[in-house]
Design a protein that fits this description.
Layout (H helix, E strand, L loop, with lengths): L28 E8 L1 H6 L9 E5 L7 E2 L1 E2 L8 E8 L7 E8 L16 E4 L6 E4 L3 E2 L7 E10 L1 H6 L8 E6 L9 E2 L1 E2 L13 E10 L4 E9 L3 E2 L13 E4 L3 E2 L3 E2 L10 E8 L1 H6 L9 E4 L8 E2 L1 E2 L8 E8 L6 E9 L7 E3 L12 E4 L6 E3 L3 E2 L13 E8 L17 E6 L23 E2 L5 E8 L6 E9 L18 E4 L8 E2 L3 E2 L21 E2 L6 E7 L5 E5 L8 E3 L10 E4 L2 E9 L5 E5 L2
Parallel strand pairs: 1-8, 1-9, 10-18, 10-19, 20-28, 20-29, 30-36, 30-37
Antiparallel strand pairs: 1-5, 2-3, 2-6, 4-5, 6-7, 10-14, 11-12, 11-15, 13-14, 15-16, 15-17, 20-24, 21-22, 21-25, 23-24, 25-26, 25-27, 30-33, 31-34, 32-33, 34-35, 38-39, 39-43, 40-41, 40-44, 42-43
Length: about 600
């Protein structure tokens, strides 16, 4: 079993640290923010001259840009400021919120959508953008504005999601309570789009009632079949919906799901390795695995099949002919159901339901019409993230001076202590719901009179190598099992079995405490990032790649036995832009000079 909490890489006798070349896009927009604080003043939650209101967002790492009162707007309480946004790329999206210092740690506003406010930045570097004046938390008296909606459905005809003469398009969103059949668009037969057949544009004008400049969220929907629009990241707010502010306007013409028309057909073969699921989930229905995606309008799942004669019978495959066009982005997701409950769906990438941030994606190659995607593990759960055989593990806990969260002081003369955890299916605690004696084998035994209590437990095959557990006392040994008294409910120890080559694997000694230890761990299912690798040197540079996910970044050091690690926070997955998209996510890349001796590692603080 390989260690994953800290990874090093070595090539040709040298270890290299990644801090190299970053792809830079134009990032300069002069943005003017403004907010109306009148309602807050009226409610006494903002005192002019004493309190401050600030704009916080992607443009400043959600730091503070204090706004100043606009004297020309008196007696209104309009606060404004202008900044050069060099953090968000031109043509990209800006997200932000206002913050009222009067409200302390709860000073964030809550726009009408419940998400960050969002705006599309101009393509030209150095251009200006004046954002609409909004009331703090969209708390102004509602006003009605006419908004013109328009969408191009040509590619949806290609994909079979829209049938000319039968299908229609509507808008669902905050403006109509996400209700269908209310805000219908009509096909404008006077509009043609160069290079596209027929008249693909659907339009409609509707009154939108909200606080002035208030945040609005919506999506286009094709009927029948309720095919939801899946906008790309630049056109999404924090809830994966399209966005606009409540002012009279004509929204830009967009492609449904931001999918441009293409006459090119691409055959894509999707492959998913279910080995870890077969090992860990005995309830997995092998006949139920499907693929869903933007290519079928997130409709009914398309069955996937395995090859019983293959070396790995757990790889399931589906071949799809997609008229997506070279360079277009395909979103997709694997799903299966449970033998015990066919109505219960298990989703690949836990939060990736119909357009959520966890969906897999890839970009169709520019000059290739056949793509055989490499197999990926369901939920990125590789076999080495699980114990493939029953594994004995020695647990130890020091009960010297132990005090439960119920203030009970451990008395070794009369009290007993137990372990509970994921590997024990979290049996019922004494005194809780349906209490019962602990199952045999989970009581800890004192080593002599050392106050160290131990137990060797066979962890079942299929258990993740990183798991939660917790200790509990049985005061007076009256229950035959522990009460949940070490720490607050749900606050557990978290440790990792890093090798199956020991009998038993010895865990470090724990302390009975209300602040249990969480061992650092990188894995394919722990989204802090990992997969740190070093390639062969080319032209004096060594390519270094890692799974660039938020929360993990690089450190470098000249020697493992001396000196300190140099932190390189710019390589965090939220900041680093050099690399490429893969079916497992964004693979960060940098190039490091191949001279000298440098160690590097990935950390997740």
């Amino acid at each position: 079993m390989k260690s994953k909490s800290i990874k090093y890489a070595l090539l040709g006798g040298l270890m290299f640290c990644a801090v190299g070349i970053m792809t830079v896009k134009a990032s300069s927009t002069i943005v003017t923010f403004s907010v109306d604080m009148s309602t807050n003043v009226l409610l006494g939650t903002f005192v002019p001259g004493t309190d401050t209101v600030s704009a916080r967002g992607t443009f400043n790492g959600f730091g503070m840009l204090n706004l100043v009162q606009d004297a020309s707007q008196l007696p209104e309480y309009i606060y404004t400021n202008t900044v050069n946004d060099t953090a968000d790329t031109n043509g990209g999206a800006l997200q932000y919120k206002f913050y009222d210092s009067n409200l302390g740690s709860t000073g964030w506003e809550n726009p009408a959508t419940g998400q960050n406010r969002a705006a599309l930045l101009p393509l030209t570097s150095g251009a200006s953008l004046v954002l609409p004046t909004a009331f703090f938390s969209d708390a102004g008296a509602p006003v009605a504005n006419i908004v013109n909606f328009q969408v191009d459905i040509s590619q949806q005809v290609n994909l079979g999601n829209f049938v000319p003469g039968t299908s229609s398009v509507e808008v669902r969103g905050l403006l109509n309570g996400w209700t269908g059949g209310v805000t219908l668009l009509t096909n404008n037969t006077s509009i043609t789009v160069p290079g596209e057949p027929g008249n693909p544009v659907w339009q409609g004008s509707y009154l939108v009632t909200n606080s002035p400049g208030g945040a609005e969220a919506f999506k286009y929907v094709i009927q029948p079949g309720t095919v939801w629009d899946s906008p790309t990241a630049v056109n999404q707010d924090g809830g994966q919906n399209r966005y606009f502010a409540n002012v009279a306007q004509t929204l830009p013409l967009v492609n449904f799901s931001d999918a441009p028309f293409s006459a090119q057909s691409c055959t894509d073969v999707f492959n998913v390795d279910m080995s870890a699921v077969v090992l860990a989930d005995t309830n997995f229905d092998r006949t139920s695995l499907t693929i869903n995606g933007s290519f079928n309008g997130w409709g009914a799942g398309i069955p996937m099949t395995n090859n019983p004669a293959a070396a790995n019978t757990n790889i399931y495959t589906s071949s799809q002919t997609i008229r997506s066009g070279a360079g277009s982005t395909i979103f997709y997701q694997y799903r299966y159901t449970l033998l015990s409950n066919p109505a219960s769906i298990v989703y690949d990438h836990l939060n990736g339901i119909n357009g959520g941030g966890g969906n897999r994606f890839f970009v169709e190659p520019l000059s290739i019409t056949f793509t055989n995607l490499p197999p990926v593990f369901f939920n990125d759960a590789a076999l080495d993230d699980y114990l493939t055989q029953p594994t004995p593990v020695l647990f130890s806990v020091d009960m010297n001076g132990a005090v439960g969260n119920d203030a009970h002081v451990f008395n070794p003369s009369v009290d007993t202590v137990y372990i509970n955890g994921q590997f024990a299916n979290w049996y019922a605690w004494a005194g809780g719901v349906n209490p019962a004696p602990a199952p045999p084998g989970y009581q800890m035994v004192e080593v002599g009179t050392s106050t160290i209590y131990t137990n060797t437990i066979a962890i079942p095959a299929g258990t993740p190598v990183a798991f939660d557990y917790k200790y509990g006392m049985d005061p007076g040994a009256v229950n035959g099992g522990p009460v949940d008294d070490e720490a607050a409910s749900g606050v557990n120890h978290y440790r990792v079995v890093r090798s199956t080559g020991f009998n038993p694997y010895v865990m470090p000694v724990d302390t009975f405490t209300n602040h249990p230890y969480a061992e650092p761990f990188f894995s394919s299912v722990n989204t802090g990032g990992a997969n740190l690798t070093v390639g062969a040197a080319v032209a004096g540079k060594v390519p270094v790649t890692w799974l660039g996910r938020p929360g993990a970044h690089l450190q470098s050091k000249g020697s493992l036995t001396s000196g300190v690690w140099l932190d390189i926070p710019a390589t965090d997955g939220t900041n680093w832009t050099a690399g490429s998209s893969t079916t497992n996510g964004f693979m960060s890349l940098t190039n490091w000079p191949s001279s000298g001796s440098t160690f590097f590692r990935l950390i997740k603080p």
